[in-house]
Amino acid sequence: MAYRCRISSNFSGDNDEVAPGFRCCCCCCCSVAAAIISSAGERTASYSRMSDLETPLRPKREKGVVDFLVQFRWIFVIFVVLPISYTFYFLIYLGDMRAEVKSFKQRQKDHDEKVKKVVKRLKERNPSKDGLVCTARKPWIAVGMRNVDYKRARRFEVDLSDFRNIIEIDRERMIARVEPMVNMGQITRVTVPMNLALAVVAELDDLTVGGLINGYGIEGSSHIYGLFSDTVVAYEIVLAGGRVVRATRDNEYSDLYYAIPWSQGTLGLLVSAEIKLIPVKEYMRLTYTPVKGSLKDISQGYMDSFAPRDRDQDNPNKVPDFVEAMVYSPNEAVCMTGRYASKEEAKRKGNVINNVGWWFKPWFYQHAQKALEKGEFVEYIPAREYYHRHTRSLYWEGKLILPFGDQWWFRFLLGWMMPPKVSLLKATQGEAIRNYYHDNHVIQDMLVPLYKVGDALEWVHREMEVYPIWLCPHRLFKLPVKTMVSPEPGFDLQRRQGDTPYAQMYTDVGVYYAPGPVLRGEKFDGSEAVRRMENWLIENGGFQPQYAVSELSEKNFWRMFDASLYESCRRKYEAVGTFMSVYYKSKKGRKTEKEVQEAERERAEVESPYAEAV
Ligand SMILES: Cc1cc2nc3c(=O)[nH]c(=O)nc-3n(C[C@H](O)[C@H](O)[C@H](O)COP(=O)(O)OP(=O)(O)OC[C@H]3O[C@@H](n4cnc5c(N)ncnc54)[C@H](O)[C@@H]3O)c2cc1C
């Protein structure tokens, strides 16, 4: 196969200037201007520096009508999606405010009523006539990117949309008891003024507690607390038969407690969760540190930013409260480490306070990139603005949706309407644009053992060439039972950098954007790239969060995830025949109810259907 020397897309901050000395030494790379995704004209691709990594040379691709629609989608976004999004956010905010004035006693009473309705609805289901159970949430409302094709088949919906109250903030137990539709923006608005926060606050305002538990949730504190579901102390679940149970790690439902995360709501319906709170201070003292060199150098710099080489991982003096890194090119990254700081400290003379949440401020990933030019710097960010720092620009996806959204004039004039609601973008894209994005765009997270981050970065560069890349570490705990997602066997004997005897350090390698070949107008097979990524993950002890499009066959799905506990809970709690299986729910492609039910029947009949795969 022919190979080319490496190219990288260079996001150059506020002004998007082409880097001085920009030269392309490979003629086909010069066609960056022919980029087919709308932002490509804005986003200048350049060689940052030569590297020994190589990427395959791909043939050119012909443009079609959909390219044109995607290129000018911003017109629709500005005049339709943004105003409606803004109105939605405002109405939701009013609804939350109304809910918050209710007493906790009233909220508990309302909650009990709502649970009764769910039980009643489940009992109304006639298994011989009705489809399998799922929530009534419309696929486009969810933040995730998978196809949710199961909602095209006959199904029995249970409406959980009213479950959006924070039932109780228990300062003594340091627990927030919340309903599943409570979202991250709502919860930080309530807890941060109390100097409290969920131990893991997922970044985007719209992400819901139910989705983050049953699906996947992570943030920059996950190197201490694990994934979002690891911070849950108890689940209140309505089981298939309508029984309501409270599952904790040490009561009679402890197997269910461990099986819920990653199960996508296929074991029961979550109606509330008790989640760990931590004390926080008003500000985050954030240090931006540039790292330059090869992708292996970058991965080592990233590891050193939060994982002491002497393995003293539980020492708060050596391990920051928050960590993330952005890899901007194959040679350049910025690592950010944060520590909570009081307002007295932040306001001390000489300290810089940056309110990154203001609508006119540069987008966060571009602001952080300035460290590559000016070197390491420190600033103080109000804690809540820090938690939601990527919300306004949807990480860097905002640049694809609104190519000029990061320019100062846009930010000042219309930045207050950002971000567009992901749900509205999904609702208005139509089938053709959706398929186009599947082929020409990547939104995937690769969860890999920390010591393999360098390999993962090189893989992404070779196969996808997507920049920036988001790096966020997270612990995978050694649990008393093997759950769908577990650390590598024997990790505790080897104890590499970041590991402790009780948890292996992993990292989320977040790959979101148009791949380099697409920006250069070359052919790129998105489905094939995802398939190869999934195989790479299976071979390297990694996992793929199922909010993203998946090409996994059933056999490979169960090579990536462990089926044993999940399957035994499916049988024990009579979920088989009532809820779809997690594979069928996550799978891409249309499936009929008959297919789903046949698979369910087989599963119920066969003792261990995954014997071959596990
Ligand atoms: C643009 C974008 C940005 C993202 N940013 C982040 C981020 O910053 N941090 C992060 O951690 N993740 C992020 N994600 C991924 C996100 O974590 C997942 O989509 C996650 O599953 C939450 O999405 P949701 O709240 O819309 O849940 P949904 O997609 O609605 O739900 C996820 C699953 O849980 C099930 N479920 C939900 N509620 C219940 C319930 N009450 N009972 C039973 N089952 C239920 C649903 O049926 C579904 O299978 C992002 C994804 C995208 C596309």
Automatic annotation (TrEMBL):
Q: Which Pfam families match?
A: FAD_binding_4 (PF01565)
Q: How does it sit in the membrane?
A: Single-pass membrane protein
Chief place of localization? membrane
**Alphabetized UniProt keyword annotations:** Membrane, Oxidoreductase, Transmembrane, Transmembrane helix
Give GO BP annotations, semicolon-separated: steroid metabolic process
Location of region: Disordered: 588-614
The entry lists its GO molecular-function terms as: Delta24-sterol reductase activity; FAD binding
Where is this gene product found? Membrane
The EC designation for this entry is: 1.3.1.72
FAD-binding PCMH-type domain: residues covered = 97-280
- Name it: Delta(24)-sterol reductase
Native source species? Nepenthes gracilis
